[in-house]
């Protein structure tokens, strides 16, 4: 069993911090979104080539499945991919695994393209659509 | 418009902290699970009458919709209810609103009854089922 | 024993969150700075009448003494005061107590007045010095 | 200028998370204690050879100096050392630097040896004193 899930082309390692652990002895459940986020930003920085200054989406929906406890100390491997692109939004999927490949958490987020200056949603830019499709597509319509 | 959503019998106020606010100027998206949790614990302490020592469930699934930015400073009002009880699990629903009633976040979590000593899931205890049903039921089968 | 320490004129209540509690069963030690911050902001909003848009200082130094464990659930009462004003900085002191008055944490932070546009420290404005002195002064030179 | 400060024999890298960044665009000031803690635990795991199950101290005092903003994305290097051992306590010092060596944060924590079962402080065990002294000593009396 490998931690590099073949369903994901992009992976990012996140070190679990002592502070993540709650009274039950495992990472607090909300930290799943933190691990997803670290991987999403790594994807954005490395695959898309965009940093904080060029952020043009907002999170609209998200879901998590907690499959097993995230223990400390360890670094987990997060698989992340774009799974669908709509006219004004795109979806991403995530899987958090131990380095030995055991599935810990999985989930999905929906991002809506957003024009922060105008204060409203906008269409997915063609160049971004092309970049995401070239890396993780083709996507189901 | 009232912040006391009539779909929820139980409400709990949570003060947004400065630390919740991220670089975008609003509460970080993962904090939705923190606000849900504060309300879930208040429900557990007040409605069920159980504290940390009697915890006998684990989180299996959760989802969030981010409707609007959570700004600081303010206290938000979180509605929480049990929405379904299965043989070994139960579901809870949440709504986070401003004190004026604007919807900010909504979501749902699925809890699985868990025997921490035995290390496995267990059936929903009859007395807990009765307490939850008396307060928030009847539930759809 | 009262939780309203007479050495402090201003107090602010902070609700301990479940997420604050770490594997040792008490609030994580770094959260002392969060509790201080909540009280400092309340002081700034209520005593000084300034919000986030008018922030003109940065933190330079801070210290904490952990006197007793911060347990959950509870709301703690934080006393906060300005204890000294220099030419370009000011100091604040904090005490976190249970509602029954038991001392939990105490500390101090040093703030340096900062011109964010110019990117350098600046002198304490005369009107701010007057406001702080009227409320918490006179201060030792 | 090297990020491996020669005053410290032990260094540990911590990846700054997006969640660490607050509305001012840099890591929240309380996170200094988190970065110190990550390095302290790494020291404890690697130098002392003790994990969570053998923890026998509590934090009594801590202080931080914020020298420069901690920006994202980056991994910072934390130097950590034991700087003094008393009869029932020991002190640790920390320095957080960029990989290029710029000093970001420094600080100190005081730990008191603690018998969690008995619920009271205890003397520094001779073997622990020997291990710490062999690695980071000799210490001033």
What does this structure look like?
Four copies of one chain form a homotetramer. In chain A, strands 1, 2, 3, 4, 5 and 6 form a six-stranded antiparallel beta sheet that branches. Chain A has helices at 31-48, 126-136; strands spanning 10-15, 57-66, 75-85, 89-97, 103-115, 120-121. Chain A is 21% helix and 36% strand. Chain A has 141 residues and is an alpha+beta fold. In chain A, a hairpin with a 4-residue loop joins strand 5 and strand 6 (120-121). Chain A is globular. Chain A has one domain (10-136): Thiol Ester Dehydrase, Chain A. Chains in contact: A-B, A-C, A-D, B-C, B-D, C-D. Chains A and B meet through helix 1 and strand 2 of A and helix 1 and strand 2 of B.
Task: Give a brief outline of the structure.
Helix content of chain A is about 20%, strand content about 35%. By secondary structure, chain A is an alpha+beta fold. In chain A, strand 4 (about 90-95) and strand 5 (about 105-115) form a beta hairpin.
Layout of strands and helices, then pairs:
Four copies of one chain form a homotetramer.
Chain A: E1 10-15, H1 31-48, E2 57-66, E3 75-85, E4 89-97, E5 103-115, E6 120-121, H2 126-136
Antiparallel strand pairs in A: 1-3, 2-5, 3-4, 4-5, 5-6
